[in-house]
Amino acid sequence: MIKFGHYRWNAIGEIQSQKLVNQNIKTCGNCHDNIYQLHEKDAHYNVPCVDCHGAGNKHVAFHKGGKDAKNITEKQAVLPKEYNLEGCLFCHRKLAARPKDFPQIDEQEHLNF
Question: φ, ψ for residue 26 (rounded to 5)?
Answer without folding.
Answer: -70, -35
